[in-house]
Amino acid sequence: MELPGQMMYAPMLLSSILEQAARHSAEVEIVSRRVEGDVHRYTYRDCHTRSKQLAQALDARGIGAGDRIGTLAWNGYRHMELYFGVSGIGAVCHTINPRLFPEQIVYIINHSRDRFVFFDASFASLVEQIAALCPHVEKWVMLCDEAALPNAFAVPLESYETLIAGHDGHFTWPSFDERQAALLCYTSGTTGDPKGVLYSHRSITLMCYGSALPDTLALSATETIAPVVPMFHVNAWGLPFSATLVGAKLVLPGAKLDGESLCSLFEQEGVTMSAGVPTVWLGFVDYMRRTGKTSTTFRRAVVGGAACPPHLAAAMAEVGVKAVHAWGMTELSPLGTVCSGSRGYAGKSAEEQAAIEAKQGRAVPGIDLKIVGSDGAELPWDGQSAGDLMARGHWVADRYFGAEHSALDDGWFPTGDVATIDPDGYMHITDRSKDVIKSGGEWISSIELENIAMSHPEIEKAACIACAHPKWDERPLIVAVRREGSSVSARDVLDFYAGKVAKWCVPDDIVFVDDLPLTATGKVQKLTLRQRFGGYFLA
Ligand code: ADP
């Protein structure tokens, strides 16, 4: 006969994470560099009070459970209040990526039927451009005080500070089912329309516990954490929640993510760890190198969203920062793997350890992974067999927002990535399945080839794409950007591959461009490169 456990039950709600911080880490600071240019600081206690003021204001205006509230905002304290205040009343905080094309933003706002949209002043002209195309939005709220509102605007506006001002923060968070939706984020839709992933209170809370663990992101109350990854990109990888969970000091960098801005903010606030995509860290180390600076407090940077090239990890080590490789995706909230120690790791040589650190890492507890072949059968964890990567776990999407059918394949989410897994469980992404180069029946990893190009001292950036080939179906082409002042030739770069990969994997050619196109989340837009150079070997 079943015997229920006899422990207290409290639903895992995001409001309880903030409440915990407001009680147990009340005086710990949240520091924000505002789009206005100044630095704002307050505490978890203040954040809690203002999030409750916002909850009261939304409640008073008829926003309730399940309603979607859009945000177009950088990382800052008002965005934190939206994360907690909106989800706290059972409504859904829909973070919109402002770097998408305006048509995509309109599509997303209309698809999710956002009732209110909150936006930073820096997105005012974007809002003027799209407001008339979003008929369901009842209210546009600018994240500023009354005095900063523009005099003339395309639609009626309200200021955030006025919206929350009439409320006192004496509010008890409602209790509801932890499986209710809390936040909504759309994938960037590099192919087809963007698709929404609807996170629940439970899924985000469990990911926060999983991400705080020592072999995951090792979060602690003693750290000062700066999420550089935007809060509109998969909830800044959960850091606004997980840092609050452990009561760490938070530093929110606002709109300026160049090397100089980050370095000065990190030094000023004593930032110890951060997280962002490789392009951000490339800019950071470039600035540090040019100015001869090293970090005094900043020690760990989580690098994810795209593969961390080994030369980047080495350059970061030179300026005193350890790169921690992580892999994930919007559908995984996003944390899937983190590359950190394991029982076998400590006994390995420095060279072997570096090879491990180039991998994307081991599954975060709570996530399970497998690789499968074209017949769907599971492949061995031998570090050699590459197959389609599948994931399942507490914070993996089941279906897309509004979709009729589950996205799962026999209970597993197909990630669209191709990977190997070694006997110690370290997963290594060799490619996205649509980027892999299929040459005469063999698969060539585009990531491996571009990493080699980028380790050439005269190459600043590189991407490897598959180009149609009359004999081999597809062959690899490197599209590269030379370092300033360099005139390195294609031949020089091709010679650089000797001994690094099998002869048949060496790219067929290198083309040089002034810059590489980036997606809205800062990754190289390979689709655009394929459209431009896909017929290169046919010409
Ligand atoms: P989008 O799919 O719209 O680009 P995501 O942020 O969800 O947005 O991207 C997830 C994908 O990014 C993964 O499926 C994977 O291909 C890639 N990715 C993320 N982290 C890494 C990493 N550390 N190494 C290689 N690829 C990565």
Automatic annotation (TrEMBL):
Q: Which GO terms describe its biological process?
A: fatty acid metabolic process
What InterPro entries does the record point to?
AMP-bd_C, AMP-bd_C_sf, AMP-binding_CS, AMP-dep_synth/lig_dom, ANL_N_sf
Domain of life per record? Bacteria
Q: Which UniProt keywords apply?
A: Fatty acid metabolism, Ligase, Lipid metabolism
Provide the AMP-binding enzyme C-terminal domain boundaries: 448-523
Q: Does the keyword Lipid metabolism apply?
A: yes
MF (Gene Ontology):
ligase activity
Q: Which residues form the AMP-dependent synthetase/ligase domain?
A: 19-401
PROSITE patterns in the record: AMP_BINDING (PS00455)
Against Gene3D superfamilies, the record matches this protein to: 3.30.300.30, N-terminal domain of ligase-like (3.40.50.12780)
Q: Which family does it belong to?
A: Belongs to the ATP-dependent AMP-binding enzyme family.
Q: Which NCBIfam families match?
A: PRK06187.1, PRK07008.1
UniProt-recorded name of the protein: Long-chain-fatty-acid--CoA ligase
